[in-house]
Amino acid sequence: MSAIEKNRKEHVVQAYDVKINALHELKNGVRNSDIAKQLNVHVRTVQRWQKNQKKILEKEYNADERLSKKLKRNKALKFDFVNKLTWLWFNESRNAGVSVNGPQICMQARAMYIALGGTENEFKASNGWLDKFKRRHNIRSMATVGEKRSSHIDAAENFITWFDNYIRDENLCEDQIFNCDETGLNFKNMPRKTFTSKEESSTCDSKEMKERITIMASSNASGGLKIPLVVIGKSTEPGCMKSINELPVYYRSQECAWMVSSLFKEWFFSEFVPKVTLYLKSKNLPIKAVLLVDNCLSHPRKLQMGTNIRVIFLPPNTSALIQPMDQGVLQYLKLKYRFLIMEHIVNNVNNGEGLMEVVEKISLENGIEWLTNAWDNVRPITIKNSWNSLWRRNCDATTTQNSILDLMNLPENRILPRLFHSILQNTESYAQIAYDSVLDWLNPPTILTPEEALSNEEIMLVIAEEERGKESGESDSDNDSDPSISNEDVGDHLKEILSYCKKHPDHFSKDEISMLLKINTRILNKAEHIVTQQLI
């Protein structure tokens, strides 16, 4: 294998919104070389995006315009859009423990259709539509998350059998089997209080939406490799941070602080694959792994690294039963986070500050620090036991629930909630709060709380961004995309070779140097031709 082939980067086509995120990072002071390393592209590619940023940003605007026009004139597309919007809303509601029935689904679908510019007469969201919606998404019941229905259990059991056979056939060990999952988090998370007015309630809800972030945890089944958390916020320039590359997490921004397919794809190639590869090499294991993910819109279907690192999707509606991260890992992570925020509040109030003053000062940087601490505290045994429902060969006598109980029952953690409750009661708006409400806030029955779920407006923005990705030709091989090795790169290497040959005339003939000069001229002519084609 030649030196050029050995150092050649994997051809990765970047979606336009990945390029836009890169441009924002450049604006924030991140170096070209750091972005290139993150995305597994050549630094010249990033420089080309910077040079063509006007065209890239226009492409975003044009994709918005095309999508808007298509929705206005195409009822069928509008119906498809409503289906996606309603499905995301349905999942958010169930994950937050909100009971949803058929009439509510129909009402939500009609509201979404009207929000897209439709009329009540065009779309009734009838019982017939509801039946099709339920069949399309394999909804046999309106169970909230965590409820175990026979149809979901059957699908899970079938997958468990298939997965066990797959692991055996591929000869994979627990160090090579990975899982990831997302959840929302209000990083200034506080217990719900009794509001004195509708205006106060509205203001609080607005702040909670602004302070919600998305976190994604990923680890292998042994707990030996915990990949740094993904944190997605709304701000491209969080005032608390100098550079996203200095953070202990993989931070990215998105309009709704939500995981979308372009961000997941970027994380997969620039973070997951390199870290898994290094880990497996350190363990003297084959570079072969599998990543298990939920079956949802933000996880692209066509995503794998050659044949060695494969992505496998869980069956729909089975996450509550067999998704490892949902079997106590994310619960433990958020529980530990809330203990840390509680400790911070108690310490500062004891030093003379007011409760609301302390909460107001909590920054995203604080949240990231506490999340990192919480993730570091998730023990390998907790992660290992989270696979018990899915991978029976991995079974242990204990469960992740034991880890949660252990954390709750630590002597210092039994005192802290009492101190926190006392501080709350000394604040007017929390005066009537019960201790049980603090415990419910600390360890809620569902991973996602209603306050952390997407709003209707955010759901529409998320789906619109996914559709824009399709409109912009996310997978097209345009001239911005990475060549395996560019003409400029070859030209630069050839100049170095020519310089070396000229300095050692005793070893290289004039004919050999002349041949190299001809090759260099042909490469320059080819580069000029490509530039000319781009300008036409």
TrEMBL record:
Region of interest (Disordered), residue spans: 466-488
Key word Cytoplasm present: no
Any matching Pfam family: DDE_1
Keywords assigned by UniProt, alphabetized: DNA-binding
GO CC, alphabetical: nucleus
Compartment(s) where it occurs, according to its Swiss-Prot or TrEMBL record: Nucleus
An MF annotation (GO) of this entry: DNA binding
Domain of life the protein comes from: Eukaryota
Residues annotated as domain HTH CENPB-type: 70-143
Chief location of this protein within or outside the cell: nucleus
Protein name in UniProt: HTH CENPB-type domain-containing protein
Organism: Microctonus hyperodae
Lineage per the UniProt record: Eukaryota, Metazoa, Ecdysozoa, Arthropoda, Hexapoda
